[in-house]
């Protein structure tokens, strides 16, 4: 049984694939936080700004089989003659608590490239086409190689220098959303300064928030 909070067609807003047409599929649940505000202070990730509780979001629901969920995702991709390769991004919560090889295969059979955005604490199934790891605090990584490492900055217990030797194709720093325009501007400035001083890292902005799309 797959439990999906929400699924929708949009553009990828962050990182190396920013601007790419994508179906986002957000799984319910996470291994670092319950998603309940009452538990935030004691969570292993305290700055999450995403609702991943339940299955009541847009196009959310429970899916008994991999083929059922793959068909649901396929129906969200534009049915046109476009030459673009269909692309799905699994996120959460923590998507690797649910994503398995059977679902990856079902999507590949429908022509999709499969991407994952994970906190890196759970090993992925084989066959993923784009693997993005976003470390959260001091939680140890089970995944130390992939296509993209995207670190929310600044996390006092997860400084960028802890990750520079890992085997990723791209290294991004993404300013933490701190809830106000003034604080966010300060964080963007400090993140930009770090990237300029340490050019292994590239700046990732949440363009979906800037441009006003989901």
CATH superfamily: Aldolase class I
What is the CATH first-level class name? Answer: Alpha Beta
Strand order of the largest sheet: 3-1-2-4-5-6-7-8-9
Radius of gyration: 17 Å
Describe, in plain words, how this protein is organized in 3D:
The chain is an alpha/beta fold and 214 residues long. The chain has a single domain (2-211), classed as Aldolase class I (TIM Barrel, Alpha-Beta Barrel), CATH 3.20.20. The protein contains four helices and nine strands. It has a nine-stranded mixed sheet. Helix 2 (101-108) links the parallel strand 4 and strand 5. The radius of gyration is 17 Å and the shape is globular.
Short description:
The chain is α/β, with parallel strands linked by helices and 214 residues long. The protein is 19% helix and 26% strand. The longest helix has 17 residues, at 181-197.
